[in-house]
Amino acid sequence: MADTLSYPQAVTYNRHIVLPQIDLEGQEALLNARVLIIGIGGLGCPAAQLLCSSGTGQLTLVDDDKVEASNLPRQLLFSRAQVGQFKVHAARDRLHELNPDCRIRTVNTRLDDEALRQAVSEHDLVLDCTDNPASRQQINAICYAQQRPLVSGAAIRFEGQLLMVDPLNHSPCYQCITRLFSEQELSCVEAGIFAPVVATIGTQQAHIALLWLMGKQVLPAGRLLTYDGLSLSWQQFTVPADPQCTVCQSIKTNK
Ligand SMILES: [Zn+2]
After folding, report:
1. Given 15, 123, 127, 251, which is the most exposed site by the fewest CB atoms within 10 A?
2. Looking at the domain assignment, is residue 183 inside a domain?
3. Nearest to 213 by CA among 55, 94, 88, 100
């Protein structure tokens, strides 16, 4: 049976509930939602913080890294005293202070295909907050195969991008856009990253995810949203499905 909001929870989330686009129904949908966040770095920290503080029922955090001093400018869940701790544990402790009602699970290992398939199947929505192309392709393929929506974010230097992949509506997928951008460009952490840019993209991942879980889709699946942090400008592109895509096209033709 679905959980309903307690009186203290209704008080906490009042500013959402008074919005007619959300209402009690949207907030209760969020209370019953399970979200898998892969990567608790510059994208995952703001995304997890907003999903937790906004009243998501369950979050699973996956990351095998430990907190380093160079993370602190943009990974605002972590304090200097937590350097050396696993990121998922440091994040869980901070998130628990924000919202003790949120059930938080942590995984401090990199998931192989089998483990990731299992994890994805146990959640309603997946956020890809990783920073390497191999993980992005793995998450995209498994979300498509498991028919779970995916909110993908990426940021480098002063640039960011967002993509929602919705296998249930046969949208183009992350692999379809990699032929438009060099994967090295998407993944090169060594090139530097301006802290507010990655925080903006992580925040937008939470924005898209929260509204999707509440029944509103603000970024149409298969539409690529890019952000230029030097001109503060956003652009949207409709991503054509790659007819040769081995992820989304093979699933379609198998149906
Ligand atoms: Zn595809």
Report:
1. 15
2. yes
3. 55
CA 23 to ligand 1 center in whole angstroms: 35
**Does residue 38 fall inside a structural domain?**
yes
pLDDT tens column, 23-46: 999 999 999 999 999 999 999 999
What CATH number does residue 190 fall under?
3.40.50.720
Nearest C-alpha neighbor of 152 from the set 172, 170, 168: 172
Q: Separation of 144 CA from ligand 1 center, angstroms?
A: 9
Centre of ligand 1 to C-alpha 115, Å, is: 22
pLDDT tens digits for range 75-100: 999 999 999 999 999 999 999 999 99
Which structural domain, as residue segments, surrounds residue 225? Answer: 33-254
* Cα(65)–Cα(67) distance, integer angstroms: 7
**22 assigned to some structural domain:** no
In a domain, 23, yes or no: no
Query: Ligand 1: distance of its center to the CA of 166 in Å?
Result: 11
Dist. CA 250 → ligand 1 center (Å): 9
